[in-house]
């Protein structure tokens, strides 16, 4: 449903100010599909809960904030079970490195050995959940949680930008139908935090319904849908009062 994971080999630490993604409400961040860093607010969609890993341990959040682990989880969520060697080839990493970081993801409940694998010569890993969520307010209770959540939010922003730039570079390679359908828009409206939360729920539900409807359509492809809403900064903006 949602496409590419992290590209490049980032090793720099996360630092910088926290971003307020959804104003002053108790925002809960959802991580969608292949790219495991997707912010979509407080989403409560029927049928989704069994696919969501609600992270409450800041150590688990810190674990998945690691650049390579984020990319590994992204690959498993989008393309299904894979071995450490297969993932290493895709991501230009060593199999020893991918094997270690897969075990760390397993330690915190993000991945597990694939019970349906037939070839036992090398362990295949699968993502346990399709989505991951955490509460920004709850994680802010500890320095470790604040740092991990802030790191993930910055990666979200980086990934959003990279996704759009990647498509623009490849636009001429796509069919006219996709070139016409793909696009961007932004709109400034006056909304309350409650309305923003409600919009996230409705849009998320529509996306899941659309995915199910197009499941067997041969023209369907992985599509990045970027959801972001935040209060405007500047003279007319405002933070905590």
TrEMBL record:
<protein>
    <submittedName>
        <fullName>Helix-turn-helix transcriptional regulator</fullName>
    </submittedName>
</protein>
<feature type="domain" description="HTH arsR-type">
    <location>
        <begin position="59"/>
        <end position="146"/>
    </location>
</feature>
<dbReference type="GO" id="GO:0003700">
    <property type="term" value="F:DNA-binding transcription factor activity"/>
</dbReference>
<dbReference type="InterPro" id="IPR001845">
    <property type="entry name" value="HTH_ArsR_DNA-bd_dom"/>
</dbReference>
<dbReference type="InterPro" id="IPR036388">
    <property type="entry name" value="WH-like_DNA-bd_sf"/>
</dbReference>
<dbReference type="InterPro" id="IPR011991">
    <property type="entry name" value="ArsR-like_HTH"/>
</dbReference>
<dbReference type="Pfam" id="PF12840">
    <property type="entry name" value="HTH_20"/>
</dbReference>
<dbReference type="InterPro" id="IPR036390">
    <property type="entry name" value="WH_DNA-bd_sf"/>
</dbReference>
């Amino acid at each position: 449903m949602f496409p590419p994971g992290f590209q490049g080999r980032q090793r720099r630490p996360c630092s910088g100010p926290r971003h307020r993604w959804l104003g002053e409400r108790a925002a809960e961040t959802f991580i969608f599909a292949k790219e495991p860093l997707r912010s979509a607010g407080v989403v409560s969609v029927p049928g989704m809960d069994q696919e969501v890993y609600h992270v409450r341990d800041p150590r688990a959040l810190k674990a998945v904030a690691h650049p390579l682990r984020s990319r590994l989880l992204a690959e498993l969520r989008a393309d299904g079970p894979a071995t450490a060697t297969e993932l290493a080839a895709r991501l230009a990493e060593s199999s020893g490195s991918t094997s270690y970081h897969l075990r760390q993801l397993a330690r915190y409940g993000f991945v597990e050995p694939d019970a349906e694998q037939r070839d036992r010569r090398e362990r295949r890993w699968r993502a346990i959940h399709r989505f991951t969520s955490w509460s920004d307010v709850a994680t802010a209770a500890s320095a470790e949680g604040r740092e991990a959540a802030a790191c993930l939010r910055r990666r979200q922003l980086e990934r959003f930008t990279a996704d759009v730039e990647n498509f623009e570079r490849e636009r001429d390679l796509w069919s006219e139908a996709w070139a016409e359908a793909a696009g961007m828009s932004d709109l400034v409206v006056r909304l309350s935090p409650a309305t923003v939360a409600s919009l996230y729920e409705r849009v998320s539900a529509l996306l899941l319904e659309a995915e199910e409807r197009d499941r067997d359509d041969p023209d369907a492809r992985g599509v990045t849908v970027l959801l972001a809403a935040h209060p405007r900064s500047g003279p007319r903006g405002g933070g905590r009062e």
